[in-house]
Write a structure and sequence with these properties.
alpha+beta; six-stranded mixed β-sheet; four-stranded antiparallel β-sheet; 22% helix; disordered C terminus; signal; Cell_Envelope_Struct_Comp; SLH domain-containing protein; SLH_dom
């Protein structure tokens, strides 16, 4: 029976491997694999349609696979449920807008993949060799318990504890091997050629086991001749509960009835008081006696954190950055790092109950009132531990501007902090205060580097974005360029249509045009003078033509086009994750209606004539003709006084989105005619249009009655 289950799992994994197309290319002749040790495996898998090249006849054998992309592969290949996502993100670096959010949450829920600690998933980080072994062995469902003791690699001690059994099982199955020098290099990056090599071995193992095993027979009551594959038990790294000393508090709770796991159902039982501790200088851990329900996560408003002080008036608020549920613990990450020896007072309010902490059995957490936690560690030993962790981070921290990279200046600052900490650690005369300060500086530099890791690009429509077209115009194409912010009908600025920024950041990026016509993409995305992505524009309607130009793209309508619904599709390719393309849709707004000016809403007051139109108007102010007309007892006909633009009046255009023109009369003109009888302004406007070039219709001049101007001056 064990071999039957293994066959099922291997076949499932074969489906998984068929999704390892990063990215898909129809080409089967690859020009860059002759020097690869996995050439035969790559060719075999390409011929079977299991993996593909990256385009242009390339496979990129030494290319890396990042954690979030492998999670997507796992989720898609195993057909995991990506629709039932949790109400809040499990990891702080994979928020809901992230392109891999649903896939990562599905893989976590299935027990296939975990985070890297500190509430983070590790987006942008390359998949390591030891993690590749863990994921493949976990997907196979192989019982690897205890096999880590059999490892013979000279660097076996460097393999993480959570990965040792899986690495040993992968070696035993012949799926993976070490290096020629007897090492395994557990933290080394898994290359595409290595994944192909393991994939080919998986297929051979599947065929071998299939030949050795008879098909499972039909069992009574199953309704099927095949036993469904069982969900593998995850190989989970040890949870960091932070129990490393320091103040803690615990207590009993009431038990008055059965609980419920249904959201919104009253729960009558209560968890015991949590144990409180620090896992590092900015993470407080609340540990309960039962596994917690990840669907219910409190917000910072549920907590009050203050730095403890002997003088109550000196207590200062400690602000919360993020909250995560992990196993039996609530991890509270603060915005600032505490020094070793500092204390914090924590209070937890269970209201509102919809967000209250509860276990998977439905028991609610009790309230916590002003419990004091002290950040305590053995300073010398803790400093050595922090130095080792920081050095490990630097080994994998690649400088750059792509997803998963780190700013070089933050890398340099962490290196400086490590060097300073080593001097303190190695000094026999170092004072306790110096050790504490070295710990504080190193934790800050470490946290700053993690926070500075380059996040994925996020694409959205710009605020108030619109794309107006007039189907009655046959004046040629509309150009989308990186032009001036004030647009014309035939020239649109791409920065007014879309917005690009990093996930979890407010910074908007500068979108520049591709200067070379031979470039494959329409626009390139520039950050810090470096290319980080591309923008391409398409139409939802094939009749609308989108042509690339040296300055951007041209949008053209066919003759007699009468479709009512069409959109422009903006697609973002992030160079840090080129296999996953984001898209936003901007509906085209059709405007063939001529603008008008409202006679009843247009007014005169205090030397200002205000004309209210149905939409913003464009035109030359010199084409506004105004006369002041009044009746004279000495003349048979009314007297008309023309006003000259620039001398007698000036015009201010409306603000964006406003539909009015304000005509300001010159003080000299007002003075000259202040003694004239009451009359009326007559205004004619020629040549004005709306944005879509619909001509303003004025069959009669606008007439605005005016009281005696001398009265207006009083």
């Amino acid at each position: 029976m064990k071999n039957q289950k293994l066959v099922i799992k291997v076949m499932t994994t074969a489906a998984l491997l068929s999704a390892l197309a990063l990215p898909v290319s129809a080409a089967t002749t690859l020009s860059d694999i002759d020097g690869s040790y996995a050439k035969n495996a790559i060719q075999e898998l390409v011929e079977k349609g299991i993996i593909n090249g990256k385009g242009d006849g390339k496979f990129d054998p030494t290319g890396k696979i990042e954690r979030q992309d492998f999670a997507i592969i796992l989720a898609k290949a195993l057909n995991l449920d990506t629709q039932s996502v949790p109400p809040t993100a499990t990891f702080s670096d994979v928020p809901e807008p992230h392109y891999a959010f649903a896939y990562i949450e599905a893989a976590v829920k299935a027990g296939l993949i975990n985070g890297v600690g500190d509430g983070k998933f590790g987006t942008g980080a390359n998949l390591s060799r030891q993690d590749m072994a863990v994921l493949f062995v976990r997907a196979l469902g192989v019982d690897a318990t205890g096999k880590g003791a059999e490892l013979k690699f000279s660097d076996a001690s460097k393999i993480a504890d959570y990965a040792k059994d899986a690495v040993a099982a992968a070696v035993e199955l012949g799926l993976i091997s070490g290096n020629t020098n007897g090492t395994f290099n557990p933290s080394g990056n898994a290359e595409r050629q290595a994944v192909a090599q393991v994939a080919a071995k998986f297929l051979k193992k599947a065929e071998e086991l299939k030949n050795q095993t008879t098909p499972p027979s039909e069992e009574t009551g199953t309704g099927s001749g095949t036993t469904p594959p069982q969900t593998p038990a995850p190989t989970t790294p040890p949870a960091n509960t932070g129990n490393s000393g320091g103040g803690s508090s615990s207590g009993g709770g009431s038990n008055s009835g059965g609980g419920s796991t249904n959201p919104g159902t009253p729960v009558e039982t209560e968890l015991a008081q949590p144990t409180l501790s620090f896992s590092n200088g900015r993470t407080i851990v609340m540990t309960y006696n039962e596994t917690l329900d990840e669907r219910y996560k409190p917000t910072p408003e549920n907590f009050r954190l203050t730095k403890a002080s002997e003088i109550e008036e000196q207590d200062s608020t400690v602000y919360i950055k993020s909250i995560h549920i992990q196993g039996k613990s609530v991890l509270i990450e603060t915005t600032s790092i505490l020094r070793l020896g500092e204390s914090v007072n924590l209070s937890y309010n269970i209201q509102p109950s919809e967000q209250a902490i509860r276990s998977t059995s439905g028991k609610l957490s009790p309230a916590v009132t002003n419990k004091t936690i002290t950040y305590q560690e053995d300073p010398a030993a803790y400093l050595s531990k922090l130095i080792e962790e920081a050095e490990q981070l630097l080994l994998t921290a690649e400088p750059g501007v792509l997803v998963g990279n780190y700013p070089q200046d933050e890398i340099d600052l962490l290196q400086e902090a490590i060097d300073s900490a080593k001097i303190i650690r190695d000094s026999s005369e170092a004072l306790p205060e110096s050790i504490v300060m070295a710990i504080y500086s190193l934790e800050n530099a470490h946290a700053n580097l993690l926070d500075a890791q380059v996040k994925p690009l996020m694409l959205s429509l710009a605020e108030n974005a619109s794309f107006v077209m007039n189907r009655q115009l046959m004046e040629g194409a509309i150009s989308i360029e990186n032009g001036p912010p004030i647009e014309q009908y035939n020239k649109r600025n791409i920065n007014n249509l879309i917005k690009i920024q990093r996930a979890d950041q407010d910074q908007e990026l500068y979108v520049n045009i591709v200067p070379n016509d031979s470039e494959e993409h329409d626009f390139k995305v520039i950050m810090d003078d470096q290319r980080v992505g591309y923008i391409d524009i398409e139409s939802s309607d094939s009749e609308i033509q989108v042509d690339k130009t040296s300055e951007g793209v041209d949008i053209s309508l066919p003759a007699e086009y009468d479709n009512e619904e069409a959109s422009l599709l903006f697609k973002l390719t992030d160079l840090g994750a080129p296999d996953l393309v984001q898209q936003v849709e901007l509906p085209i707004t059709w405007d063939e209606v001529a603008p008008t000016i409202s006679v009843t809403e247009s007014t005169y007051s205090d030397g200002n004539i205000t004309l209210v139109s149905s939409e913003p108007l464009l035109g030359s102010f010199q084409d506004i003709n105004i006369t002041y007309n009044y009746d004279s007892s000495e003349e048979e006909n009314s007297i008309s006084i023309p006003l000259e633009f620039g001398n007698d009046f000036n015009v201010s255009s409306s603000l964006p989105g406003q539909s009015q023109l304000t005509i300001r009369l010159d003080d000299r003109f007002i003075t000259e005619i202040s003694s004239l009888p009451s009359g009326r302004f007559e205004i004619r406007i020629e040549g004005f249009t709306d944005f879509a070039k619909n001509q303003l219709i004025m069959e009669e001049p606008i007439t605005i009655p005016v009281r005696t101007l001398s009265h207006e001056q009083d």
